[in-house]
Amino acid sequence: xxxxxxxxxxxxxxxxxxxxxxxxxxxxxxxxxxxxxxxxxxxxxxxxxxxxxxxxxxxxxxxxxxxxxxxxxxxxxxxxxxxxxxxxxxxxxxxxxxxxxxxxxxxxxxxxxxxxxxxxxxxxxxxxxxxxxxxxxxxxxxxxxxxxxxxxxxxxxxxxxxxxx
Length: 165
Known about the structure:
The protein starts with a strand and ends with a helix. 17% of the residues lie in helices and 30% in strands. The chain has one helix and eleven strands, in the order E-E-E-E-E-E-E-E-E-E-E-H.
């Protein structure tokens, strides 16, 4: 049976049996394999079997799916392949023998202990709405807008009063 060994940031390892024809992977609970990590998309990827061979396909994820360090759209999996969903590292195995315990180090991945954000360094948001990082800018902008509207209303009232006389 095919298995996926998942290496969590906490140091814990989980083995997930790939028992169905298609195993969906992502952050949402509807996935067959839910990985609760900010770098993993809601519906990130899928692993499926075709004629006793296994493949992994990226489902348009934000941070990509990588096999042995190479970004992929779809590729065949082999025993011992390292598969990375966002920054979460896994190892694919078919045999009943235990898969290697430690993943090889990838120099381009940030270590979680040294990162302030859980997003990878190369994360790019496609949202048209800019995020307020300090929590004060949007409040200041709203206050300035309210003051401007008040000033215009006051000026309009004074103008009307002066026109009447």
